[in-house]
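Example record

One chain of 375 residues, shown exactly as stored in the release files.
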Amino acid sequence: MELSTRSLCCVLLSLFAGLASGLEITSTGSTSIDKASGLSVKLDCQFSLAPEDSGPLDIEWSLVPSDNQKEEKVVILYSGDRSYEDYYAPMKGRVHFNSADPKNGDASINLTGLKSSDSGTYQCKVKKAPGIRTRKMLLNVMVRPSKPRCYTEGPTQEGKDVVLRCTSNEGTKPLQYSWEKTSDSKLMPASAVLDPLGGTINVRNASASASGTYRCVATNPVGTEECILYLNVTPPSNIAGKIAGAIIAVLLILIIIAIILFCYCRARHRKKYEKEICNEIREDVPPPKSRVSTARSFTVGSQRSSLGSMSPSNLHEYALKPQYDKIPSSEEYERPPSRTPLPPPAAAKMAGPNLSRMGAIPVMIPAQNRDGSIV
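Predicted structure tokens for this chain:
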């Protein structure tokens, strides 16, 4: 009895084992994929069925967490001859089955617009009772290097240590940096020390031969970018000459400022002096014009009266007589005493009786002082 029971159990186990071995995953590609962000990837999962697999077909893709304590997240599902693609919100609209009818043996999916958050382990599970098979794939979404920046650190002078640095701000690590010289002999300086992870070249005791054009290439598994740097190693600078030149320049500037201030103060002082001179009142006492005018009118009137009493014959004789009583002009009255011209030599004076016989009329000439004023 016991023998027959054991025989029956063995027969049943062998039967179930044969039935379960009918479903197989036939994909043999790599189970680890590296892709750049923004691209698309196909996760391959091909399968085959056996006549013994007679149950309904179910295909399930899930994101397996690295922590076994967390629950798997279903990404896409095929069941009952229908696809369900909206299970996982972060991938909504970006994940689709590769075949329009997965039951033909293609359970592969396509994931578009890759993001770094899409990285993880994906599991393909195919079920068709009584067979069940799974396949896991590791997807690593990487960011390609951004364009690096090339620059130098420290002084680029002969005899100094010159550091060339190359840095890419974006990109999935590890990033590898490589340097090469693209000018002249294209040979790197013998004293150059390269750090491929840090992206630096340390040129010790640099010489003029180190000058030239250098190229840096940043690389990771999904892309490369490069930058160009021109290095010019200059002779040591003359520090003493620069200091002397700076001192001379400062002195010249101070001298120029002093000259400008001196000229400004002098011009201001001269302007002030001229203004005071213009405001000064000058006193000049010319002879009174009113008296001169009176004297002139009196003298001219007397002369006219004298001339009026003369006959033509007398006028002729009067014209021939010397001008011993010449009346000064207004200019002579107004002229300062020091410049008054001396009177001409006096002619021979004629006696009063003789003048009376000639018909002359006595004329009274007002007395004058030295400055020309009438007394």
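Notes: DSSP finds six helices and 18 strands in the chain.
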